[in-house]
Amino acid sequence: MRLFDERYKRTTWPYGSSVWGKKEWVCPQIEDDNVVSMDEGGTNLFLAEAFGRGIGLDEVWVKLCGNSHTGSFKDLGMTVLVSMVRQMIAKGRQIRAVGCASTGDTSASLAAYAAAAGIPAIVVLPRGKVTVAQLVQPLANGATVLSIDTDFDGCMAIIQKLAEEEGLYLANSMNSLRLEGQKTASIEIAQQFDWQVPDVVIVPSGNLGNIGAFAAGFEMMRDLGLVARVPRLIAAQAEAANPLYLASRNGWRFEPVVAKPTMASAIQIGNPVSIKKAIAALQRCDGLVEQASEQELAAAVARADRTGMFACPHTGVALAALIKLVDRGEIRRDERVVVISTASGLKFTDFKADYHAGKLPGIVATKANRPIELPNDYDEIRRRLDLAVPA
Asked: Which end of the chain is less crowded, N or C, counting CB atoms within 10 A of the terminal residue's CB?
């Protein structure tokens, strides 16, 4: 604990990264010269006081895992995977390129880290199902981008088949190297709470690697004696793409679904590759699964934003799940809750702009806030301000 605290957010290579600052628990065999890092981790954990008070909880904390180099938590795992690939190449392994299927954030992270390492990257995206901000990231970093007329599950099948060809290294979360990096988020949460763990952690869930990663980090700390217990894990899914939720209601018997369109596009996944690990993790951690409709996630984002956040739609799924669980009495007022925010809201400005313009199909935007357009007339401006902000 003392060692990790001494390294935290310092500049001694590579320990300033909150992933590599815990190198002994992540991937100790990687040589420092082969580490590919952009100072990932070390992200904000803040008390969402106004939001928590509004839903009847004393402590709601938000872990901003999206405050990272490419704007999502995927950097935590990608630094480990690309570093290992770099080391394998240095030791003579023939790897032509790294590749992934993605709904946006994985491709951005892989492209950035591969570019930093000088390794070609191939990303397979579902055409028209990622935001412009997410699409432009791998393009800018020089990746070969394949935009395919299918959904994420179709892209996953394609990249798996391509990875059977010699020389393409698969970078999706079925690769355990990714999860080794992602588990450091749970370790960092404990570190930020002075090596205490919260009562509940809520994770937006799509391909389901993150649930297993969070469980692994908390369980490692418990098994090593740093903490006495693990928190209760809650997986939050969009109702439009909810195979884990359905499995939890059916004795944990999983069947893939065809994911429907959802504003939480990064978790629009009907056949998640990490389903077995996720179910096992939830069973070990007294976990449960909750879902959120499109209306519920949009309303939760708007409500959170009015308290100072700028939440992505996937974080909205987790916040909506939290609200439902509190309303049903499944989370107590005195429990310390951490909501995982997986990506920067700046990647989803179209979603937010359309909400406030009332353009999201089927969504009742009760908190829409539109600009007041006025002539260049000071008296009229004063009059409208007096109406908007009464004395």
From this structure: C
